[in-house]
Each structure stands twice: as structure tokens, then as C-alpha cells.
Write a structure and sequence with these properties.
With 478 residues, the protein is mainly alpha-helical. It is 67% helix and 5% strand. The strands form two sheets. Strands 1-2-3 form a three-stranded mixed β-sheet.
């Protein structure tokens, strides 16, 4: 419980700091242009001078990840003011942490010398990650200042697609031979000023750098110093190829509780490693992408992006939604005569469509989540469909009966009550069927199963719900 309270307090503190920083930025915004040009003589008031000193002090104390979060929460003008005042030595790390849209705005407003200074201290794998977003001249200048080994590593990482393990490889690692003692290994480690981040194991290789196994640090610390590495190491190692999919690698990290894992080529030669921090980013980005796709957003969007950019990002699925809404309206139009005779139908039909949409979204969310975690295969889809239809049938009969009773007491008509029971049950069955089929068919077509799923399921349950309810009413009540 103590750790939980500590975590909550830390989150509250970050929120309070963000509010305070926004207040300081608001004080300095009128003189932002002069601050950008390093002309601080225009700071007329004591409040502005104090705000500038305090803001610089606060920003320089923040972790790069916190600076990134702050930048993402600010409109463009305020964002550029904070970016100008942030610690220049950490600019490269901040660029790695911010979202892609925000990174674009920051890079667009930086001069070449500022960009070169920002990437100067980045490791090879970090520069490779940032390179696609940098101007070509900056990348060329940055590479020219690196040694031949680093240039080769950066070129190797940039040769892979963003969704491949090779693009996220870390080249900073510790390797040893199997025929030395643990005492030799300990002496070797003491020669380092620091070990690479997230070092939980040492990679054991032969003379050709072919991976033989791994020596966990915890095993090294408790082993007899005279023991050979070959006797202590683990040879059942989870390995990855640079061509492997990063989402599958992230799932493996979660499944096997990995902190680091070796990346090997076809000859089992050790060429790099991947670490838990990169895999956490992959899992987070995958989750965010699924959320955006389900809502019909094409890509991640800067909260404070220009109106035109946001419109471009959202218009496609809004157009699809408009078309499906028009179809739903035409379905209602087909039964205008029925609604004219039984006005109660107009007040009840949104209930049928609404509960169908909600049920369908529940189903589709479960299916997409299972697909993302690799729990569903094509052979399981039929069994899963039958299961979801069973759930829909039970829910339809229960909640349809509830609404049927309510409808009877409202309108004193047994027929309307029975139609409500039947319509809600049938629409929930339709929602369950479509909720399984949409992501399955999307995946078979090679598309993201979450893409526009929320929009599509709502369209089907609206049009289907209206048609089922009004159709049953027309058949049995008129």
C-alpha cells in the first residue's frame, strides 16, 4: 500500500508542477519573441524576471520524459517558448520521448546547429531512431562526426523497417567467452565506468561472436569465483532476428518477463540486443494506435495541431459515418407509415440501436485485444463466434424482457413489449456476429483489425436495429 500511495502522490505532484509551469509561461508569453532572440532587457516587470528565472530552473531539473510530456500539453507558441528555455544538453533525449507530431513541430523550428548539438551525445541506436525525422544535411553532418563502427551500426539500424526488431537494436552490450572464470568476469566488469542500461545478463560468445548462452548477473554474483562461465551460464536463451516483428518481440518480453534479449543473425552471430524500455514503448504505441484506429483516426494527432491538419486526420471515417448514418435514415424512411400509426415506435427504436451498438463495441474490443496479444487463430474464430452469440442471446432475452415489461406499462400494449424483446435479442445477436467478423476479416485482408471498427459496428447495429425493430412492428402490429 505504501508504494501505491507514493505513486499517486508523485502523479499529483507532476500535475501540480505542470499547472505551475503553465502559469509561468503565461507571464512570459507577451515577451516570447524577445526571449527567443536572447533579448532579456525587454523584461519590464519584476514578475517577468522572476518567472523567467524560475521557469529555467524548473525545466533544467525535469527529466527529459517529463519535459516531453509538458511540451505535448502546450499549444504551439507556449511549446516553443518552453523548448527554447529547456536544457540544450537534453534536447536529443527529449526529441526521442515526444510524440511524432510534436517532434515534427520542434524540429521544424530548430536551426541546423541546434539539431547537430541535440544529437551529438546520442547513442548509435538513438540517432538511427531519430534520423528519419531529421533533415538530410543534419544526418550527414551527424554521421561524419562518428567513427566507422558507429556509422556502420547506424546504417544497419536504418536499413530495417520501423516495425522490425533491427530498427530498435541497441549496440551497447557486454559479451564474454565461456572458457573464463567468474572471477575474471568480475574483474572485467570493474573496468567499466558504467554498464549499459538495463544490463541484467552478460552475453556469452565464442571467438566468432556466435552466441553460446547468457550469464545472468544474479548468477554471477552468487557463483563460486573459480567456476567457469560455461558451467554457470544458461543456454536456453530467447533470441530474436533483426527481421522479426517488434509487436511479436514485445509479446515475448511480456510472456517471458525479459529485461534484455540478444539479437542474432542467421549464423547466430550476436549483432545487438533489445531492451525492456523499447518494448514498453512498442506496447504503449500499439495500444494507442488501436485506440485511434477504433475511433477512426488515421494517425496520432498533436492536441494543438492546426485545424486543417486535424480535419485531414479525421475526415475519412467521418465521411464513412455520414454515409452509414444516411443509410440508417433511409431504413427509418422505409417504415414512415408504421411510425405514423404507432408513434411509440419512434421513442423506442433508439433503445434497440443503442444497446446493440454498446454490445457490439464490447465484443469488438475483446476480439481486437485478443488478436493483439496473439490469443486468436483462424481455427478459433468459429468457436469464438458461437460463444459470443450465446452471450448475446442470454443478454438479449434478459434485457429485452426488461424493456418489454417497461414498454408494456408505458404503452399498455403486449405486442409492443414482445416486439421489443425480439428486436433487442436479434440486434444483440447481429452485434455479436459482426463484432467478431469485422476484426477477423480485417486481419485476413492484411489490415489493422481495430481500423474503424467502432464506426463500422455502430453503423451495422444502428441500421440493423432500426430495420429489425420497425420490420417486426410492421409485420405483427399493423
Amino acid at each position: 500500500m505504501k508504494d501505491t500511495h507514493s505513486s499517486i502522490n508523485e502523479q499529483e505532484q507532476i500535475h501540480l508542477d505542470t499547472d505551475h509551469i503553465c502559469e509561468l509561461v503565461a507571464v512570459l508569453l507577451p515577451v516570447a519573441e524577445d526571449i527567443h532572440s536572447h533579448n532579456q532587457t525587454s523584461l519590464q516587470t519584476t514578475e517577468q524576471k522572476q518567472a523567467l528565472q524560475e521557469l529555467i530552473a524548473v525545466l533544467h531539473d525535469l527529466h527529459p520524459a517529463d519535459v516531453a510530456t509538458l511540451l505535448e500539453s502546450l499549444p504551439l507558441e507556449e511549446r516553443m517558448l518552453v523548448w527554447k528555455l529547456a536544457a540544450p544538453a537534453e534536447d536529443g533525449e527529449v526529441l526521442l520521448e515526444v510524440s511524432d507530431p510534436v517532434r515534427e513541430t520542434l524540429i521544424e523550428n530548430m536551426e541546423q546547429r541546434e539539431l547537430l548539438a541535440a544529437v551529438d551525445d546520442l547513442d548509435a541506436d538513438e540517432l538511427a531512431e531519430l534520423a528519419p525525422d531529421l533533415p538530410r544535411q543534419v544526418v550527414y553532418e551527424a554521421l561524419s562526426s562518428r567513427d566507422e563502427e558507429e556509422r556502420a551500426q547506424i546504417a544497419a539500424a536504418m536499413s530495417f523497417e520501423d516495425d522490425q526488431v533491427g530498427a530498435l537494436m541497441d549496440f551497447e552490450l557486454v559479451s564474454i567467452r565461456a572458457d573464463v572464470t567468474c572471477e575474471v568476469v568480475l574483474r572485467y566488469l570493474r573496468r567499466f565506468d558504467r554498464l549499459p542500461d538495463h544490463t541484467d545478463k552478460i552475453f556469452v560468445v565464442d571467438e566468432e561472436d556466435v552466441l553460446q548462452g547468457v550469464l545472468p548477473i544474479r548468477s554471477l554474483l552468487v557463483s563460486d569465483p573459480e567456476s567457469l562461465v560455461s558451467d554457470v551460464m544458461a543456454d536456453d536463451v530467447v533470441t530474436f532476428r533483426p527481421e522479426d516483428d517488434v509487436e511479436e518481440a514485445a509479446a515475448a518480453f511480456e510472456r517471458y518477463d525479459l529485461v534484455t534479449a540478444p539479437v542474432i543473425d542467421d549464423n547466430r552471430k550476436l549483432i545487438g540486443r533489445i531492451t525492456i524500455d523499447e518494448m514498453v514503448d512498442v506496447i504503449r504505441e500499439e495500444s494507442e494506435t488501436d485506440m485511434l484506429n477504433m475511433a477512426g483516426l488515421r494517425e496520432e494527432e498533436d492536441l494543438f495541431a492546426p485545424v486543417v491538419d486535424s480535419v485531414k486526420n479525421r475526415w475519412i471515417w467521418l465521411a464513412v459515418n455520414l454515409c452509414t448514418a444516411f443509410i440508417a435514415s433511409r431504413v427509418i424512411g422505409m417504415f414512415e407509415h408504421s411510425i405514423e400509426k404507432i408513434v411509440a415506435l419512434a421513442t423506442l427504436m433508439p433503445i434497440v440501436a443503442g444497446i446493440g451498438g454498446n454490445s457490439g463495441n464490447q465484443t469488438i474490443t475483446m476480439i481486437v485485444r485478443a488478436m493483439t496479444s496473439g490469443q486468436i487463430s483462424n481455427s478459433q474464430a468459429k468457436r469464438l463466434l458461437r460463444k459470443e452469440e450465446g452471450v448475446a442471446l442470454v443478454n438479449g432475452l434478459i434485457w429485452g424482457s426488461v424493456m418489454g415489461i417497461v414498454s408494456y406499462f408505458l404503452y399498455h400494449s403486449i405486442g409492443i413489449g414482445l416486439v421489443m424483446v425480439a428486436a433487442m435479442t436479434l440486434n444483440l445477436l447481429l452485434a455479436a456476429t459482426v463484432g467478431v467478423l469485422i476484426p477477423v476479416l480485417m486481419q485476413k485482408a492484411g489490415r489493422d483489425p481495430a481500423l474503424g471498427s467502432s464506426v463500422l459496428i455502430t453503423a451495422v447495429t444502428d441500421s440493423g436495429g432500426f430495420f429489425i425493430f420497425l420490420g417486426l412492428a410492421t409485420l405483427f402490429l399493423l
